[in-house]
């Protein structure tokens, strides 16, 4: 059964053995099991904390949370009533359709439209579509954002990000190529620093210490590597990328983080997080990512 529709989730099964699990809550991918390009043994590629809530009571600590219409604490006037990372990851999406189901892959479309709870906090017209596609060694997740206004105004101004928790040993994982790309270091609290990006020439980024870097106008293709694994992240239209790991100093204070969870993942998050996408009525924006298990 390539597409298993359950009450609170959808399970995708690829004929070659890979699988993915998507909670309707937040359209959160909570599992992606895939063999690598060199072996067909499916292994779990994402991290979900054992303390994560999967009952819709709060955003999932792990997997691939969908961040929309704001990243981090809101800074745009349209987002002033929203909580950190916006509402998309804490609303229940609908399964719209099975887009593809064949030897090449299995693909489903989920949708989210304004409801009373959302409109109280965010009164702009929108329609979201999230297309999740499972192939033998890849998982693609594409976010389509439409301004459904009947005229050119009101404009829809937003940020968007896919908050990938990639399962990897944080003590040795490296992320490339970010050499020479300017970034904002969110581990330094002073607002002033956030207006002056840092630039480093080190060839690879590690997360051996608390890391929370927002890279602007980043390459769009990232290799996440460690001694026994490798995942490639390819992004389209997500012009920025965030690299985050709280390590013990911050991770131990996160209520739904399992003990030592910070040792078992790195967040590599394609997004549009510096500035805002601006859509007139009728316009659509699409941000895409393809995750490939290489080793
Ligand atoms: O993407 C990195 C980040 O913005 C960090 O600053 C940290 O807050 C993380 O997201 C997790 O945020 P959450 O709201 O899910 O606890």
From TrEMBL:
The active site is at 163, 269. Signal peptide: none annotated. GO terms for molecular function: carbohydrate binding; glucose-6-phosphate 1-epimerase activity. It comes from the Eukaryota. Its EC number is 5.1.3.15. Keywords: Isomerase. The keyword Isomerase applies. Substrate binds at residues 61, 84, 89. The keyword Glycosyltransferase does not apply. It catalyses: alpha-D-glucose 6-phosphate = beta-D-glucose 6-phosphate. GO terms for cellular component: cytoplasm. One of its GO terms (biological process) is carbohydrate metabolic process. Catalyzes the interconversion between the alpha and beta anomers from at least three hexose 6-phosphate sugars (Glc6P, Gal6P, and Man6P). Belongs to the glucose-6-phosphate 1-epimerase family. This is Glucose-6-phosphate 1-epimerase.
């Amino acid at each position: 059964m390539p597409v298993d529709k359950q009450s609170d989730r959808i399970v995708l099964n690829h004929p070659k053995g890979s699988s993915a699990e998507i909670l309707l809550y937040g359209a959160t991918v909570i599992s992606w099991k895939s063999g690598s390009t060199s072996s067909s043994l499916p292994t779990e590629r994402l991290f979900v904390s054992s303390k994560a809530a999967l009952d819709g009571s709060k955003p999932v600590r792990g997997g691939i949370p969908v961040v929309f219409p704001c990243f981090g604490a809101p800074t745009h006037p349209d987002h002033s009533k929203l909580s950190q990372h916006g509402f998309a990851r804490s609303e229940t999406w609908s399964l719209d359709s099975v887009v593809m189901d064949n030897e090449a892959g299995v693909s489903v479309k989920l949708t989210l439209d304004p409801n009373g709870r959302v409109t109280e906090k965010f009164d702009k017209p929108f329609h979201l579509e999230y297309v999740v596609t499972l192939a033998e060694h890849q998982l693609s997740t594409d976010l389509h954002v439409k301004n459904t206004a009947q005229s050119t105004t009101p404009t829809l101004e937003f940020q968007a990000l896919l908050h990938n928790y990639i399962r990897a040993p944080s003590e040795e994982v490296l992320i490339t190529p970010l050499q020479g790309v300017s970034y904002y270091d969110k581990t330094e609290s002073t607002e002033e620093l956030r207006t002056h990006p840092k630039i480093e020439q080190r060839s690879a980024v590690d997360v051996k210490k608390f890391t929370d870097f927002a890279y602007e106008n980043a390459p769009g293709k990232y290799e996440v590597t460690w001694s026994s694994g490798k995942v490639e992240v390819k992004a389209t239209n997500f012009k920025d990328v965030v690299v985050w790991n709280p390590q013990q100093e911050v991770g131990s204070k996160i209520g739904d983080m399992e003990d030592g969870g910070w040792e078992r993942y790195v967040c590599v998050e394609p997004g549009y997080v510096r500035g805002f996408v601006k859509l007139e009525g009728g316009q659509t924006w699409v941000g895409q990512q393809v995750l490939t298990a290489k080793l």
